[in-house]
């Protein structure tokens, strides 16, 4: 059992007859096993609990192994953000050894990260969350010509034609008539919270299908530069594994790089002409949702896309923002920044691990101790991270706010564009503060994607220039001294700041901890019983129909949950009032 637990004030109230518990388990259209419990009163969420329902123990598996191999194991934490645990792992080992990598390796890693991030954000919006807002069945009622008029008013995308929309509508109609909605079969179609007009629904469904094609092109870039995808091979502690030689068939050569450039050009059109117009139009049409989903407003993100071998100059800034106050932004300035190292702790007070401590990742252990779902005690496999003692929200919103606070020109330009487009739909100005919301997380992810595309262009040009200058180096071999070394790496992954922490002893891993974006956001209450970001964001969320809690999914999905990452098998019977299955 845990130490003495003081229930939050709102749990001391006697529940009224109208308070209802819903348990969504599993939440789907995410990676991994997430259970969300909500207390609903008078059509609103009054309390919430986020629970990770799966445990794998990769951190334990790493103990005693060679630090040069760690990235191959950690990359298997997740099948979605596959590259990120590899990149973060080699950064942690390089930091512990004080090892610099060649500039070519840095730029190649950046290209892989940018392409992977764009792929991931496109998939999140269209495949993993759009159907919380878009009614597929309503798209059947749309007039293709009216849909084309709407879409052409938003962008010049060539497929925004009446003929194309009519063709898509015909395809969807066939599915529905044949009773073969497939992955769309269990959606909340016709739900009263679905507010888009039929034309907007048809436009979004058409772009959902096109997104499948464009996310693949982004992933092809990852595969070419990374050796394969998912789970890249072209990496090493000290750089990257593949040789660079413009004229060699067996190395990274000009023919491969030219193909990457072609894929980049195709991808850019979708990112600029489809994704941004869609997100801002849908956010504008759902303006009534802008007040919901704020939650934790301490924001943490990592600077990334290093321009130098050392990691001191970054294409995308990051850092800490307390209390949504951009004037108090504290940047992280370099790999190994002690401001980050000293302020990150994890608590297991409400998690299924042995003990009750709040520790630096260097000093953690990972000993499972399952006790069933006990909302006053332990109720999740996810640990509860804190920064400077407080929960922090991570993800594209945290990153975009940090970049705005840091005065990043590209971010400000894309954010102004996005807010102006939303305002054009709503008819009134939309301030930056509107971003502290469920829809704000979608808008920020889309803004971040635009910046990631700039990173793809910048790093591609830099790599070509460096190779053209005659530099083909890609690897500096690591040397492991006797004794103990400690280090950490950070990386701004698609779902937010990721950090890996390693203690090496005599060339072997003594301790390894991953503090992951979805751990920050999906974590249970912390050492002071403060709610984690998912839990806090759900408070006040409307729920029109407890049997079909679409609005809860909107807010949870806006974080892009990945529980495989967060916890690094378990299932059992538990009490519930309503069991809900979701798409
Ligand atoms: Ni499995 Fe991940 C990302 C990491 S977790 S998806 O992005 O790291 O939140
Ligand atoms: Mg961990």
Automatic annotation (TrEMBL):
Topology of this chain in the membrane: Peripheral membrane protein
Primary localization: membrane
Gene Ontology CC entries for this record: plasma membrane
UniProt binding sites for Mg(2+): 59, 568
Cofactor(s) the protein requires to work: Fe cation; Ni(2+)
EC number: 1.12.99.6
Residues that bind Fe cation: 565
InterPro entries: Ni-dep_hyd_lsu, Ni-dep_hyd_lsu_Ni_BS, NiFe-Hase_large, NiFe/NiFeSe_hydrgnase_LSU
MF terms in GO: ferredoxin hydrogenase activity; hydrogenase (acceptor) activity; nickel cation binding
Keywords for this protein: Iron, Magnesium, Metal-binding, Nickel, Oxidoreductase
Catalytic activity: H2 + A = AH2
Gene3D superfamilies: Cytochrome-c3 Hydrogenase, chain B
Binding, Ni(2+): 78, 81, 562
Compartment list: Cell membrane
Family (UniProt): Belongs to the [NiFe]/[NiFeSe] hydrogenase large subunit family.
Quaternary structure and interacting proteins, as annotated: Heterodimer of a large and a small subunit.
Protein name as it appears in the record: hydrogenase (acceptor)
